[in-house]
Amino acid sequence: MQMREAAERILFADSLDEKLTLAPEVANDDEPGMAIVEPDTPGRPDSLRISQKGVKASFPGVNRMDDDRERGVMMHFLANHELMAAELMALVLLKFPDAPKAYREGVYEAMREEQMHTLMYMRRMRECGIHFGDLPVNDYFWKLIAPMETPMDFVTRLNLTFEQSNLDFSKHYAGLFRQVGDTGTAAVLEKIYQDEIGHVGHGVKWFRKWKHQSDSDWQAFKKSLSFPLAPAKAKGMAPFNVEGRRLAGLDDDFIAHLEVCEQSRGRTPVVHWFNPNAESAVAASLTGDVFQPNKMESAMEQDLEILSIAWCRRDDLSLMRCVPGNQHLAKLKQFGFDLPEIVSLERVEDAMAERKLGGLRPWAWSPDATRILDPFADAVSESGEWKWRREAPAWWLAKEAGVRLNECLGLHDDVGAFFTEYDSALLAVQNMRQDRDLLLKSNFSCAGRGHFRVRKETSDAEIERWLKRCLAKHAGVLVEPWLDRVMDFSALYEMGADGQVRQIGLTEMQNDRAGRFLGSRVYPKWGGGIDPDVAKFLFADAGMMDWYRNKIPAALSGLLGDYRGPVGVDAMVYRDDDGALALRHVVELNVRMTMGRVALELQKKSKPGSGGLFRILRKSGMDAETLHDISHAGVESGLCLINDPENAREFLAVWEVI
């Protein structure tokens, strides 16, 4: 028999008996014939016709694997995949008659094995009371692979993507079926696993012959796939199987890259962008300048952008200036973090081509975020909650926002005053400093930077110089009394598409004496973690629950209008002039993501029911021994360096489960 004859029968026959009559072990290939154009669908009996509309077959959960019918449903699902693999291999033989003989022989052998796999699944499903054709089948593989233009397309799409993913699935599920006592199904999956190693290995061999020799295997594989296919689809929904990939001939570099590679598997991804210098970008835009980060600001952007893994979901996409190394990403996975798809800004247009998006969520809607995300505005689906927007009103990212919230709430004691003119600001400072120290805050300062403490000994000349510089750059200054700080905390919210403001949680903030951010602490139950006297004051005397669950969310909804996304309200417990505890309800309003929200999201992804401490440390101020200890802390220690200490220029983000 000629290979072509066997391939035509498998591809075009409309009865299962014909399609699955095993091709002879050896076939001639001296009459390969003319190349064909792929049909819209392979030949199938009426009960097994694949739908161009993509009828979706359901897949049973592993918790129901001991149920005969559920096992039969699973076998039906997998049998369709094996039959379609045989049909696609037949298509390769008919579509590329001039492919190398040795390659065609390998495809022919694999095609016979796919016939056998289908027959094994059919036998098992019959024993479970299901017949092939009882359930709908989809055309997913056919739509993605049949339009191939070269044998290399087939190798990368079927062998190196879908068959490679089956190295994870078949081995894992074989073990699960043995656990529930179904040795028959386990044996089928174990046989398929061994054959799949050979199929992937055959693909690897020819992939290496046909790829650009200057590219690594991983580089060539990434370049060969276009949306909706992506390298992440070469991983099954099962534990990652390093051993099987090595047996198939994949190299360690390829395996390491693939292990940490992610992409959405159905849900449209939300795109995240870390722009922590949003306030500075707004300040620059007000003077007509383009924001250029200084050395420390640039280090913050690069060192801490991986913090997006805290708030990203697994199917999301995080844009990064520098993609983290595989070894560090693997450590984060060991700690239990699900990774989003990570895309370098340098190749973002290729990665986003033709993709629909679920939304756009930068750290803050500043001019730089608007510019970076503008090319993807039209890709956001109509139902997406977080649409692209022009940069937020400047006051949203200014100290003025907190002033406006205080006004909405009718709060005036110890909240200070906001000024845009030099003379009025100077007069206020002169009047207010007579009986206490003051704190001056630049309008677009952030995390304690851009503050100036006015003490009794501070000269008028120092104050005047600072105010002039501040107003020239920030167009506003907040003048506050210096308070005897007891505790800083933050209330975190999410503002939804309906304008409703939902409280996410509370964190205790750790700031230095100057008010600069050091870290955030989260507790399983916030009131039970803070100082008991402070907790009693807040909940019993200050009416905290009503303020932060009712009054402040209602005020935010009216104040922020069409904003959608994260919001943080910083607050403070302090001692008044009589030494009694007092509450400053709103110290600042942050209309953006915050480090407190990062801590809260890290807690959700860590050990359930635990507390945690999130800190930003300075690498330059750390001795070598301390740096070594936190860099090499094991998962069991509960300590995790979120960013890679080897590549960090200045900042280290540390999460510790407590």
From TrEMBL:
InterPro entries: DUF455 (IPR007402), Ferritin-like_SF (IPR009078)
Name of this chain's protein: DUF455 family protein
CDD domains reported for this sequence: Ferritin_like
Pfam families with a match to the protein in the record: DUF455
